[in-house]
Design a protein that fits this description.
The protein has about 250 residues and is an alpha/beta fold. It is globular, with a radius of gyration of 17 Å. Helices cover about 30% and strands about 30% of the residues.
Length: about 250
């Protein structure tokens, strides 16, 4: 297999995604304690000691809070943008690699393309991974799908895509007005309908796997996300819905 990927968990209580090729494994984000990260990784048959690096999308705590402790304990290099590094004092890191200008880079035989996205963070990035002719896109935590995003994430062999909220549930839900505006705004999170529109525009017939992720536990449901994305899901070989507690198990890209 060229690439495989799995999730430690997906949602506002903590995120982490594993991307592996051959003997190398990357962790994208870590929003869990060291103990919880070790437990969730063990469920997937790996240890933090197996990691080649940690990549960070942005500074929000559900993506960043566990990065520095894990990196320090296991001596792991961390890749992040200068804006993300400056956004919060996360303490000393063993090795820092700055993502400058969102230029592609490689970790072992995994090619990584950082993609700038509109999100209420200092310098947020999402990622496209390539190895041995296969490609994987991780696309969560953005409020708008820009032409730049579509250009990079169209044509992937596998995609982890945010469908964070149902607009009606968000409007009627428990969040205060300011947080509702943030989540539903141009720098917040994608709704079910925005995710569906993105897939309709870029096409998804080539997708081996579509993972619908970062589904809000308060402002969405798997049933509503599944309904909104039904047309796209029918054209994908494998469509699954990630959850906060279990994430999803290893998926192989041919």
């Amino acid at each position: 297999m060229a690439l495989r990927f799995a999730s430690l968990g997906s949602g506002s209580k903590g995120n982490g995604t594993l991307v592996a090729s051959g003997d190398h494994c990357l962790l994208v984000d870590c929003g869990f304690t060291i103990k919880e990260t070790e437990r969730r990784m063990a469920r997937l048959g790996v240890s933090p000691a197996d990691l080649s690096a940690i990549l960070v999308t942005h500074e929000h705590s559900d993506h960043l809070s566990g990065v520095a402790p894990l990196a320090r304990k296991y001596g792991l290099p961390v890749y992040l943008t200068p804006g993300t590094l400056r956004a919060r004092d996360i303490g000393q890191l063993p090795r820092v690699h700055l993502i400058e200008g969102h230029q592609p880079f490689a970790v072992a035989d995994i090619q990584v393309t950082p993609v700038a996205v509109p999100h209420d963070a200092r310098e947020a990035a999402q990622f496209v991974f390539r190895s041995r002719g296969a490609s994987l896109g991780l696309l969560t935590d953005l409020g708008t799908v820009t032409p730049h995003v579509e250009a990079h994430f169209g044509g992937c062999d596998a995609l982890v895509l945010e469908a964070n909220h149902d607009p009606r549930m968000l409007a009627q839900g428990p969040y205060p007005p300011s947080l509702k505006r943030r989540v539903g705004g141009a720098y917040g999170h994608l709704s079910n309908q925005q995710a569906a529109g993105f897939l309709q525009r870029v096409g998804c017939d080539q997708l081996q796997h579509l993972v619908v992720a970062h589904i809000s536990e308060k402002n969405n449901s798997i049933e509503l996300a599944r309904e909104a994305l039904a047309d796209a899901a029918e054209r994908v070989a494998n469509c699954i819905f990630a959850c906060q507690q279990q994430g999803f198990d290893w998926l192989d890209i041919d």
